[in-house]
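Q: Give me the 3D complex with inosinic acid.
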Amino acid sequence: MPSLVVIGAQWGDEGKGKLVDYLTSGADWVARFQGGNNAGHTLVVDGIKTKLQLVPSGILREQTRCVIGAGVVVDPTVLLAEMGSLRGAGLTLSPERLTIDRDAHLILPYHVAIDLAREAKAGKNKIGTTGRGIGPAYEDRAARCGVRFADLFALPELKERLTDLLKQKNDYLTKVLGGEPVDFALVWSAVETAARELRPYTGNVSLLLDGALKSGAKVVFEGAQGTLLDQTHGTVPFVTSSHTVAGAATTGCGVGAKYLDHVLGVAKAYCTRVGSGPFPTIMEESVAHQVREKGAEYGTVTGRPRACGWFDAVAMRRAVRLNGIDSVAITKLDVLSGFDKIKVCVKYVLDGREIDDVPSLASEVDRIKPHYIEFDGWQSDFAGVKKWHHLPAEVRFYLTTVGEIIGAPVTIASVGAERESTIFSSGASFVRNFVQIPEEA
Ligand code: IMP
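A: Here is the predicted complex, encoded as structure tokens.
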């Protein structure tokens, strides 16, 4: 102990990777617990960009051990490519530094084919998935016919099972979805390569983390996507297929709930969404355009432009509740520099009635009329700002007030992509102790 769970409090892309990378300066372990290569974390260290999809963000710190928990779905081809490019950048990637849980499921070519064919068939009703096979892989896990890393140690049995399974998948692909069948040789080649290259990295993450936590090691559980994309609690059906909330760290890594000490929610000073789905606080396009360009709001995985909206405190209150958020980091404050007024949605009105939570039906979310309050904007370029009390008064007022509205204190402000542009308030005592940052002068 202690452990810190870092989750996205909006629809993903909140800047978690940067925060996790910063926080790992105090961590012994970093664990991914859900999602797959639908995630894309961009880290900037000394001006050099590193993009990660599956490898936990802690990999940039030589002393940190990284684990991929059983709750993650892993496309082995993507993981191997990512490991290769990290090695190319001079990082050490050995089984001592990276372990994948034996119970994590593999994404195989038929998952990707089904994801793409389904979206194509859905036309205008598509979810707008990343097309990486995430949903179909989680479906197989629930249907108890998925392929796990443990299966890579029993290839003859797996081959027999996969032969039957692929027949069913191809029937579904061709007869129901109108797609092309997937060749067994393609699937088997991915499996054989995974077995050859990744067996040494396969282990028992639950056992490793349990031992680490009991011996007092510091662990960061790194969430992917965001709360409003949670498979059950998000804005269904426009969600991902895993649980993105903090509690998923326990099931996704096989650790007990008592080990989750602090939940840090990460949110942008505005909102973005990629893919389909209603978005109550969407900005008018002239404003959204400025935010998108300044904030580089294009999907890390797919390059799609993200829809941009004002900060949604109603949705954020839901995130605070669903995750049990202890403290909040607000990122990308620099992107809003130069606006005269900054809007925050504090209330939803649906069909003339005030409601205090995000409705369950997408058609209702679509009809929401957001009610805003306005804050004075800030003009700062933030260069060189390292201390909370050096932040412009408007920014500090905005952060404190937002914290009061959402019911969780904002204790971290991020004002740029670099590690150093992360500023802690005096209220960030858990996180400060975790990272061992001295109290503010
Ligand atoms: P899937 O996770 O690829 O099935 O996509 C389902 C929905 O989640 C789509 O709207 C995606 O755009 C969204 N999504 C998945 N991963 C991310 C992410 O890392 N950031 C933002 N949106 C995501």
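A quick observation: The two ends are 28 Å apart (CA to CA).
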